[in-house]
Amino acid sequence: MLLFGLTGSVCHAEDITVNYKGSTAKVTKKAKDSVKVTVDGASVNIESLFRDHKLTLRLTGKSDDGQLVLKTAGKAKVKLDRLQLTSQEGAPLCLKNKKKVEVVVVKGTKNTLTITACNDTANHKAATIWAKDKLLLSGKGTLNIIATGDGCRGIKTKKDITIEELTLNVTTSGDNLGEKPFGFGGMPNFGGEMPDFGGGFPFGNDSTMRGGFPPMGNDSIEGGFGGGFGGKHKYVASTKGIASKGKITINSGHVTVRTSTAGAEGIEGKEGVIFNGGNVDVLTTDDAVNANATIEFNGANVTARSMGNDAVDSNPKSGFFSPFGSNEQSDEPAIVIRGGTVYAWSQVGSPEEGLDCDFAALVVEGGTVFSVGGGMGEMPSVPTNATAKQSTVLLIGISIVKDEPITISGADGKVIDTVIVPFSLRRSASLVSSPAFKKGGSYTVKTKGYEKTFVIEENFTAVR
């Protein structure tokens, strides 16, 4: 016998099962008390007052015009079991949760959530999955997130997102839902004075400016430099892949993100992005990975590629624009690389970068790194001798040829790393680091039409 109350219960496998079938949905409810279910065609609205009991739902079946709206007072787990759910307006999975919701993909299953329109952004959440509180995505199956409507994001939350185990594929293809144009004439509001950069531009290893030129395509600088001095746009609702007002953490699994519209970042965590493990592949028009706080690479294999902006862009409080007009500033680093593989590729050249730190600190403690980009005057964001805990090299002027192998070898001819970049860039400023690099060692980088031998003289070494 199953007992339910407002403050506790005996756990059960699934309290509610929703089976979508075309234009209808059948709901089987074992939770009798404190759970209200409303069904209108294939649109299901579930409201739970449980606080201590974790409400568990199982979603299965197929509908081309369906939705689940879940409002919970406590935690919830939503199991996706061979679910094919498309919404013609509003989030197909809308989570109005007050506590964390787990979305679990059942082992061995393939599931697809699609959103085709986000016109009423005031009442319908403009994402394929929208969550009010924390969201955990897990399971040993496949989840495809597809957003085709204008202004529709892939995944959007107001708080933290954690991803682990599953194969997650996120694709957005709609246009931006409105924009606010502003152009060359606008300069940032400096609060009455220009900031002190403390050491000038970063053309030497000991510079205190700690990074490249301010990002020219950053959506957060209203009236600023953006868009390469030709003007930029502030989008009302850009079609981002995975976006959170909190922090995004990827622990394991396989994550692929694709966006195709201007202003549509791939992975954006306002309070930071953390890559702990798994394989992550991001291809976007705008920043592939973006945060207003530290971006950490601790052990994942990440390929972040932007076709029109920075590959990895961090804008922390310690960065270039943060002190203007306010007294807030911190010492938090912009990017920290401790392990894994970090391939950060911006294919448009100067001033966009592979790793953009907004003048805050770039810390390299481990891992394999190969960035491709420009930077202002071929000088991108770089670590200092103090923040390069692992030997790191800036290769200035390296020519990238599409699909041609780039090899880095030691003095003994042993290949340390081979990278194949899927675009050409005549002159790149590439940041390279490897656990195999040793101070005082001699190394050679070679690609089609380019070969350079260098000696690592300091923790951070610039090679022209």
Relevant terms:
eleven-stranded mixed β-sheet, 464 residues, 46% strand, mainly beta, twelve-stranded parallel beta barrel
List the helices and strands and how they pair.
Blueprint: E1 16-21, E2 24-29, E3 35-40, E4 43-48, E5 55-63, E6 67-72, E7 76-87, E8 93-97, E9 101-105, E10 110-115, E11 127-131, E12 135-139, E13 142-147, E14 153-157, E15 161-163, E16 167-172, E17 179-182, E18 232-235, E19 242-244, E20 248-250, E21 254-258, E22 267-269, E23 273-275, E24 279-284, E25 289-291, E26 295-306, E27 312-314, E28 335-346, E29 355-356, E30 362-364, E31 368-372, E32 392-400, E33 405-410, E34 415-420, E35 425-433, E36 442-447, E37 450-455, E38 460-463
Parallel strand pairs: 1-5, 4-6, 5-7, 6-8, 7-9, 7-10, 8-11, 9-12, 10-13, 11-14, 12-15, 13-16, 14-19, 15-20, 16-21, 19-22, 20-23, 21-24, 22-25, 23-26, 24-26, 25-27, 26-28, 27-29, 28-30, 28-31, 32-38
Antiparallel strand pairs: 1-2, 3-4, 17-18, 31-35, 32-35, 33-34, 33-36, 36-37
Protein described:
The protein has strands at residues 16-21, 24-29, 35-40, 43-48, 55-63, 67-72, 76-87, 93-97, 101-105, 110-115, 127-131, 135-139, 142-147, 153-157, 161-163, 167-172, 179-182, 232-235, 242-244, 248-250, 254-258, 267-269, 273-275, 279-284, 289-291, 295-306, 312-314, 335-346, 355-356, 362-364, 368-372, 392-400, 405-410, 415-420, 425-433, 442-447, 450-455, 460-463. It is mostly beta strands and 464 residues long. The strands form four sheets. Strands 7-9-12-15-20-23-26-24-21-16-13-10 form a twelve-stranded parallel β-barrel.
